[in-house]
Specification:
By secondary structure, the chain is mainly α. The protein is built from 19 helices and 17 strands. A hairpin with a 2-residue loop joins strand 14 and strand 15.
Length: 576
């Protein structure tokens, strides 16, 4: 519905809302026979509904295999012990796609070195899946939860189930839920939302009279295996009993080298300029220290005095600078966290693997509570009790290490330094969403909501670092987690206010250019972003923003929805 003309008056839909009719009355499709949208909310709903189809990928589409990030050849990889399906044979004929088998069977993430798979390629999936947007042709780990929330809200339960089935396939054949289904992601996962995805589909099936306990039992087995990844070494956060992000790979991340031009040079220059923050991330070689590079750097950078002059690499170097193996471990772990790039775990996320994060451990508590619920539903009383105990233990450790009673916020814990972080971050709301926070803690966190609240919703942090996961940016996933956490803790007025701010910002920008984006500047209420650290783009689509928009809209009181429509429809018409 891009370019659809806005109507200044509230018509039948607005009258329907005033009479408290169901939100399902809003049209959810924009087929050829559907009537033109009457108001701004109908227009954006039509865009989202059509978007599920345009963002869906399958191996019947030649473009699915293409990787625009690496600009590499179109290669599709099958599991080592997997016969070539008929659909893949057809793909070979129609699209001239090269098909190969992986060199060995994979039992767990990190077992296979992606560097030995040349060229990099797409990992086969059995079912359809929804991608984030724009240039992405793969199914991402944590994006998919927020996409699935939107799919089930829009009645696309079968497509949501297909995506969950694909995660089961990843666990069975690629060792776990991957960052995304590309060979260079075989060394890491993403934030664990699998049980939340399973229950979103199961509950939607149940609501439609199609509850399937056989499917739930099968899903439970995969969910247990996914949980094991996060509670086994090397994902354990020292002796805290908590977990950490950790990528099994070494050296620069392939997608960063190809897709974030100059990023590692920028990082090295920063640490040269800020020597007190180096930790052990930078190694230098000069005439006086000629052998220092033998200490294990993996990606040498000739910086010259770029930190002061921004001179190009071709200048006469005073020495060679390299980022250390420990830096790359942190950089890769940051990418597993999904928050790439933020300075939350040190500059450029370099110390991510040294922290027990609030977000990860809140999600694992939620996973353990979900497994308790699932096993009880399946009649496994002893297993259900085991999961209850594990969840309670994690809750106790979160309270011990991550809650700061003096500051009234949850913080990440640096288990190497044995010190709690002081970096205020929007993930402080995750324990409210997961049900870890006590009523007193929830009140304490809510006293600080002003640190994050801006005209367009909640920003990631109060700190402007140039990274896309810091100030002034608002991301849909964290709006949903925080707002649902507030509702769970009883702060409905705050939840409604923040929902309204974010939804109206997305609608306002949709009016301007007819698109939905992956992130927004919450201060300026704009999809125009000025990221300077790491990944710079603001992709159109956008899967998780679409899903969160629908989820927040559904939870908003009807009076607020009516106000939202009125405000948008009375605004001056935009031309795009």
């Amino acid at each position: 519905m891009r370019g659809a003309h806005l109507m200044p008056k509230l018509k039948k839909f607005f009258l329907c809302l005033l009479s408290l009719c169901s939100l399902s009355a809003v049209p959810s499709s924009a087929g050829a026979d559907s009537k033109p949208a009457d108001n701004s909310l109908e227009q954006i709903r039509a865009y989202i509904s059509a978007g599920w189809d345009s963002l869906t990928r399958s191996l019947t589409d030649c473009a699915t295999v293409v990787d625009t990030k690496l600009s590499s050849a179109s290669v599709l990889y099958l599991p080592a012990d997997f016969a070539v399906p008929a659909s893949v044979q057809q793909l070979q004929k129609q699209c001239k796609v090269e098909v190969q088998h992986l060199p060995a069977v994979i039992h767990h993430i990190g077992e296979m070195d992606p560097g030995k798979i040349d060229p990099a390629g797409l990992l086969y999936m059995e079912n359809r899946y929804v991608v984030p947007g724009g240039r992405f042709n793969e199914m991402y780990g944590w994006d998919s939860y927020f996409i699935i929330r939107g799919l089930v809200r829009d009645g696309r339960i079968d497509l949501a189930k297909d995506m969950v089935e694909n995660f089961f396939f990843e666990i069975e054949h690629y060792g776990g839920v991957l960052n995304a289904n590309r060979t260079y992601y075989l060394t890491r996962s993403q934030p664990p939302f699998l049980t939340s995805m399973i229950l979103a589909v199961y509950d939607a099936q149940k609501a439609s009279g199609r509850a399937n306990n056989e499917w739930l039992a099968r899903a439970y087995g995969y969910a247990v295996k996914d949980h094991e990844l996060w509670t086994s070494e090397p994902h354990r956060a020292g002796s805290t009993g908590l977990s950490r992000y950790f990528d099994f790979g070494n050296g620069p991340a392939a997608e960063s080298v190809k897709d974030e031009t100059g990023h590692y040079r920028q990082v090295a220059a920063y640490f040269l300029e800020q020597p007190e923050l180096r930790r052990n991330y930078v190694l230098e070689s000069t005439a006086a220290k000629p052998n220092l590079l033998a200490a294990g750097p993996l990606f040498a950078l000739e910086i010259c005095d770029v930190a002061k002059t921004m001179a190009p690499a071709a200048c006469d170097p005073a020495g060679t600078t390299a980022l250390s193996a420990d830096y790359y471990k942190g950089d890769r772990a940051m990418r597993e966290s999904g928050f790439d790039i933020s300075f939350r775990f040190g500059p450029y996320g370099a110390a991510t693997h040294h922290f027990a994060p609030v977000c990860l451990n809140s999600l694992l508590y939620k996973t353990e509570k979900d497994l308790e619920q699932m096993s009880a539903a399946l009649g496994h009383k002893e297993e259900s009790e085991k999961w209850r105990q594990r969840a309670e233990q994690r809750k106790a450790e979160v309270q011990k290490y991550l809650w700061d009673s003096e500051r009234g916020l949850f913080f990440d814990y640096d288990f190497q330094k044995q010190a709690r972080s002081t970096y205020e971050y929007v993930t402080t709301f995750y324990p409210l969403w997961a049900g870890i926070a006590t009523p007193e803690q929830a009140r304490g966190v809510m006293q600080h909501v002003g640190k994050f609240e801006q005209p367009g919703g909640l920003v990631m942090s109060p700190y402007e670092t140039g990274g896309q996961w810091d100030f002034p940016y608002a991301w849909a996933p964290n709006q949903l987690m925080a707002i649902e956490g507030m509702r769970r803790a009883g702060f409905n007025d705050d939840a409604n206010r923040l929902s309204y701010k974010f939804l109206s910002m997305v609608m306002e920008n949709f009016r301007r250019d007819g698109t939905i984006r992956e992130k927004y500047d919450a201060v300026k209420r704009s999809s125009e972003t000025q990221v300077t650290a790491g990944y710079h783009m603001n992709i159109v689509g956008f899967g998780w923003t679409n899903g969160v928009f629908l989820a927040l809209l559904h939870e908003l009181p009807q009076s607020e929805i009516a106000r939202l429509i009125k405000e948008q429809d009375e605004a001056p018409a935009a031309v795009h």
